[in-house]
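Thread: quick sanity check before group meeting

JM: Hey all, I'm pulling together slides for Thursday and realized we never actually wrote out the predicted structure for the chain we discussed last week. Dropping the sequence here so it's in one place. If anyone has concerns about the input, flag it before I start.
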Amino acid sequence: MENLDNIQNLIYLIRGQRVMLDYDLARLYHVETSELKRQVRRNIERFEGDDFMFELSHEELLRCQIGTSSWGGSRYGAFAFTEIGV
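JM (edit): ok, ran it. Output follows.
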């Protein structure tokens, strides 16, 4: 039950949809975030439309307070995956 609570804490409400961020999803799948994003881009036709995923704007990224790189900010836009996209 503790794992379910941990996963529920990784769900955000953005643009009226419950989503998980690429960073958290990659951690759950035990892969690097860059590898997850690479695979998504290779199979982008499966993720077309906001029903599956969308890229966060800078403002949305700040609201979620996701980790930043050592360069002083997020180097790449974060993907938000909807329930269908996950």
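AS: nice. The helical segments are 2-8, 22-29, 33-42, 58-64. The longest strand covers residues 17-21.
JM: adding both to the slides.
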